[in-house]
Design a protein that fits this description.
It contains 6 helices and 5 strands; from the N terminus they run E-H-E-H-H-E-H-E-H-H-E. By secondary structure, it is of the alpha/beta class. Strands 3-2-1-4-5 form a 5-stranded parallel sheet, sandwiched between helices.
Length: about 140
């Protein structure tokens, strides 16, 4: 059975370090894992926006913005010859990451951590910290 790894990215240097880490350590796995690249776009507060923008325009915006955040990670995986499946979702990042990991039956989540430290993480509520609390599968955090 092939191992499934969820690789959430947001376009940040921190997320790209997680991509690099996974690529550099693929030899750890007995067989090449199935890689699922995920970008979660936070929802735009609906309210007045929907009065001026139709659903198709909003969907196109989310897609375009998400694709721009995925490009560098996709290029790194492609350059390493690593096939991956790309997923784009809209929602609260930690909740969506945990849900997608469960829906895809992922064996591990590999993600970047901004490494702000415990106090800053508690005050600001990091996505990585929330994912750790919401998911059942192991999470590898890359600083």
């Amino acid at each position: 059975m092939t191992m499934k790894i969820l690789l959430p990215v947001d376009g940040s240097a921190c997320a790209l370090r997680a991509v690099d880490h996974l690529i550099a350590h693929l030899a750890w796995y007995s067989e090449v894992p199935e890689i699922h690249l995920l970008h979660v776009h936070p929802p735009i507060p609906i309210g007045r926006v929907q009065a001026h923008i139709d659903k198709e325009t909003l969907h196109a915006y989310y897609l375009e913005e998400s694709q721009s955040q995925l490009v560098e990670a996709q290029q790194k995986l492609d350059a390493a010859g690593r096939f991956h499946t790309t997923h784009i979702h809209v929602g609260q990042p930690a909740e969506v990451i945990a849900r997608v990991a469960h829906e895809l039956a992922c064996d591990m989540i590999v993600m970047g951590s901004h490494g702000r430290g415990t106090v800053a993480g508690l005050v600001m509520g990091s996505v990585a910290n929330r994912v750790l609390h919401l998911t059942q599968c192991p999470v590898l955090l890359v600083k």
